[in-house]
Write a structure and sequence with these properties.
Helix content: 40-55%
Strand content: 15-25%
Number of strands: 5
CATH architecture: 3-Layer(aba) Sandwich
Strand order of the largest sheet: 2-1-3-4-5
Number of domains: 1
Structural class: alpha/beta
Distance between the termini: 7 Å
Number of helices: 6
CATH class: Alpha Beta
């Protein structure tokens, strides 16, 4: 059974460590047999979530596109930077917009319920973005996503990657690859 995963980072920065990290996971998921689509949140600019705006104009076009991508995939490879011990504004905003119903008869949280996710982070700090993953895990779990227990954080991210975008620390590289394979395996089991 073909597992379809959406890979994204909670950052819009061009040279984001988390974009590099999620691409390693995406390659490993492909090697494990999944079809993986990588998206950059920079390509989906959104206004801050505002119910008055939604009531007046409906979902913004980019929210509709992002939500359709979320709906079309079985699970998510998600790398999230840590901003002030929490989730980034761009990631939270994307999650919020994609959680909104497009019509009155649309099932609640259709872009998330029954999906799976693997979490990872990279940060120049000593904890590698670990504190932010607590919030990401809580949000996703509360909207119906099955988040696998394992996660990987990469500290000292400004020194962690080589010129090819791979992790210099082979143990961390293998941990990210194992995390991706675990997500593929769990998602396949849930789809069976």
């Amino acid at each position: 059974m073909n597992v379809q995963l959406l890979a994204l980072a909670g950052s819009t920065r061009t040279h984001s460590f988390n974009k590099q990290l999620v691409k390693i996971a995406a390659d490993a998921a492909r090697a494990a047999g999944a079809t993986v689509t990588y998206v950059d949140l920079r390509d989906f600019p959104l206004p801050l979530f505002d119910q008055d705006l939604e009531d007046a104009q409906g979902l913004p076009e980019n929210a509709k596109k992002l939500k359709e991508l979320f709906k079309a995939h079985d699970g998510f490879l998600l790398a999230s930077p840590e901003y002030n011990s929490s989730i980034t504004a761009v990631l939270k905003n994307a999650i919020d917009w994609a959680s909104r119903a497009g019509t009155d008869d649309e099932p609640s949280l259709i872009a998330y319920r029954g999906k799976t996710a693997a979490l990872m982070s990279a940060s120049p700090g000593g904890l590698g973005g670990l504190r932010g993953l607590v919030t990401v895990r809580s949000i996703l779990s509360n909207i119906g996503v099955v988040v696998i227990p394992d996660q990987v954080s990469v500290s000292q991210a400004h020194e962690a990657f080589d010129g090819e975008g791979q992790l210099k620390d082979q143990h961390k590289q293998k941990s990210i690859q194992k995390l991706a394979r675990s997500l593929v395996e769990l998602t396949a089991k849930l789809k069976a």
